[in-house]
Amino acid sequence: MSSPHKNPVDLWYGAIKHVENAPLFSSPKLPTGATDTGMRIAIQGEPGSFSHEAAMKMVTDAIIVPCSLSADVFAALQEETVEAAVIPIENSLAGSVSEHFDLLLTHDVKVERETLLRIRHNLIAISGATIGEIDRVFSHPVALAQCRQFLANHPRMEAFAFYDTAGSVKQLVELRDHHAAAIASEAAAHYYGAQILQADIEDRPENFTRFFLVRRSKDAVTDPKANKMSLAFSLENRPGSLAAALAEFSALGTNLTKIESRPVHGKPWEYIFYVDCQIQSPEEGSMAIKALAPHCAMVKELGRYREAQ
Q1: pLDDT digit string, tens, across residues 7-39
Q2: What is the DSSP string of 158-204?
Q3: CATH for 228-305?
Q4: Choosing a second label site near 2 at 20 to 30 A (CA), which of 59, 63, 68, 259?
């Protein structure tokens, strides 16, 4: 129970400092059906998170290794304490996860697969709590933003940002707080023994997140049926360089499905461009990279993989 001498919100946020300083979990609880011979996959967040769900979708016997920060995920991969990582790269409502683009660029890794996960948000509380008791709701800021209408319809409930969707359920159960709830996945409710007070509370049902399965470059296997490629490139600082680079894709008949820019750290007003494109053959992908080279200061292939449906 919450201490009468301490603000209950302060009790919740006491968990954040612990998480920021926490090491990688070296011996996570195995998901149902997993064995100790499965692929070790790092995720950012707690067991029961959407990243956990996506990892199990892609590798059904995976051993999930939760990490507190995205940088820890890539460190675990680089240090070979895990075989792969599963990271969210883009949400259909919230947009791209910019930090993960930067981490893909700065590590010697390749995207091996992608998948799409339908995001369903649920109001979760400890067993025995009722929706009328809830006056505080905790979750990741993106999840809270995707449930604005539900929260507006329940003005008694004050929203608080927390480090992780599943982590908010974990903290809820540890504190046994009858007046608090979390917004997270159904899997998180089951994993931590909590109850769903109301399901599917997201504003829009067209809510999908795209996830990448990432491996060390030396271990990555390119799908022979790969029809999509992700690239990062920076341009020579001269007029028309971006238009010239994009014209190379057009000349090859290569269809761009995504392009966005990210600032280069330490170099104000210089940018890295990230591109996803559909390719008809491995040769087309190689030709696109070769055609870009004269226009670019840097070109890095982030991976070739089969497009998720």
Answers
A1: 667 666 665 544 444 433 333 343 434 445 589
A2: EEEE-S-HHHHHHHHHHHT-TTEEEEE-HHHHHHHT-EEEES---S-
A3: 3.30.70.260
A4: 68
